[in-house]
Write a structure and sequence with these properties.
The protein has 351 residues and is an alpha/beta fold. It has helices at residues 3-6, 11-20, 120-131, 149-158, 175-179, 198-213, 256-262, 264-270, 287-294, 299-321, 331-348, and strands spanning 26-35, 38-43, 46-51, 61-65, 73-77, 83-87, 96-101, 105-111, 134-140, 163-166, 187-191, 231-235, 239-243. The two termini are 28 Å apart. Bound molecules: guanosine-5'-diphosphate, magnesium ion and zinc ion.
């Protein structure tokens, strides 16, 4: 496997690339890391730094003109199949920050050794569904299971349509189950709070994959991986991981499609309200209030939904107020993007 294949360049990707960039002189490369002022890319001839090109996001596929071997230039970027983004923290212009591109699985990491925080899980799931990738909830530190058994139950409860698997980097439990979902060309990003066990899991997966394939860890002089920035990590077998430092807030960006996926049960209730313009408060015939009374809908879940709904509404108001300076998508474009994301996700859905 050459470097490019290790970073997810499958035959399928190759045919996408050659049909998009028809000039046979161009070479494919994948962005492994974005630094200030330069990017690190994987190419068919190993890793290299490219200066001065920083528009790309980690995971992007680039076309390089390598006429001058020592100074390759970026001539194009492949259209992204999925984009994981959040609203930039404290940004009054409400701009999006792209965290990763071309990811198939968003691993939403939840440690079982601490109480689950208010609506972080739902928030991350909304962003994950909205990206066009498939979320996979990964419970970590299963060896500490007796500590907070309720976390497992609550997580399963709140994961909605996302699959939940339990792992331990310490004991190795669940690693093979996770690796079974990471075939060649599959990129998985790990999201979760600091201390959740993301880096430990990444290291354990690399170690386990090496062990399974009978390969020997190449001595790269760096030893174990530690998270400094969002960087792609190839794992033996052809899959790629992206570890992330703990993201403080996860403010939503244009994530209506994700909201629909995570809270489809609630949005289905709206159709059953007596009045089409129901505010789902104390008015008569509200299906939401009825579901809360009967216990079919947890009130906490309804509160989470409202918080995220309001957050998105305020984002759109700010985008409108910024008079197009913040490039918000039109309603029509959002609907189109959501349909594309869904279509892409379906192709990766497990049977
Ligand atoms: N008992 C136990 N501790 C773990 C496990 N995975 C990680 N930890 C510990 O949790 C802490 C945070 O782990 P780390 O991987 O750095 O978390 P990150 O911030 O999400 O990358 C460290 O002290 C790890 O030793 C596990 O499977 N079992
Ligand atoms: Mg880490
Ligand atoms: Zn109602």
């Amino acid at each position: 496997m050459d470097t490019l294949q290790q970073y997810g360049f499958t035959d399928r990707m190759k045919s996408r690339f050659t049909s998009h960039f028809t000039d046979p002189g161009l070479e494919p490369a994948r962005v492994a890391r974005v630094d200030r002022g330069r990017i690190l890319v994987a190419t068919g001839h190993g890793m290299m730094h490219l200066d001065g090109y920083t528009e790309a996001a980690t995971g992007d596929w680039l076309a390089l003109d390598t006429t001058d071997r020592d100074r390759p230039t970026v001539v194009g970027v492949m259209p992204r199949l999925s984009v994981l983004q959040r609203k930039k923290a404290y940004d009054p212009l409400a701009e999006a920050q792209v965290l990763a591109a071309n990811v198939e699985i968003v691993g939403v990491v939840v440690p079982i050794d601490r109480p689950i925080s208010s609506n972080r899980l739902e928030r991350t799931l909304v962003a994950a569904w909205d990206s066009g990738a498939r979320p996979l909830v990964i419970l970590t530190k299963a060896d500490l299971r007796n500590k907070f058994d309720s976390v497992v139950a609550h997580t399963v409860d709140r994961a909605g349509a996302a699959e939940v698997i339990t792992t331990s980097a310490e004991s190795g439990d669940g690693l093979d189950e996770l690796l079974a979902r990471l075939g060649p060309g599959i990129t998985m990003v790990l999201l979760g709070p600091s201390g959740a066990g993301k880096s430990s899991l990444a290291n354990a997966l690399v170690g386990k994959a090496l062990q399974n394939t009978g390969a020997v860890r190449a001595t790269d002089g760096r030893g174990k991986h530690t998270t400094t920035s969002r960087e792609l990590i190839p794992i033996p077998g052809g899959a790629v991981l992206m570890d992330t430092p703990g993201l403080r807030g996860f403010a939503l960006w244009d994530a209506e499609a994700g909201l629909d996926e995570v809270f489809s049960d609630i949005e289905a209730l709206f159709d059953a309200c007596r009045f089409a313009d129901c505010h789902h408060g104390p008015e008569p015939g509200c299906a939401v209030q009825e579901a809360i009374r009967s216990g079919a809908l947890a009130e906490r879940r309804w509160l989470s939904y409202q918080v995220m709904e309001r957050e998105l509404a305020s984002l759109h108001r700010r985008q409108a107020g910024a008079g197009g300076r913040a490039k918000g998508r039109s309603t029509r474009q959002r609907a189109k993007d959501a349909a594309m994301a869904k279509d892409y996700r379906n192709r990766f859905r497990q049977p």
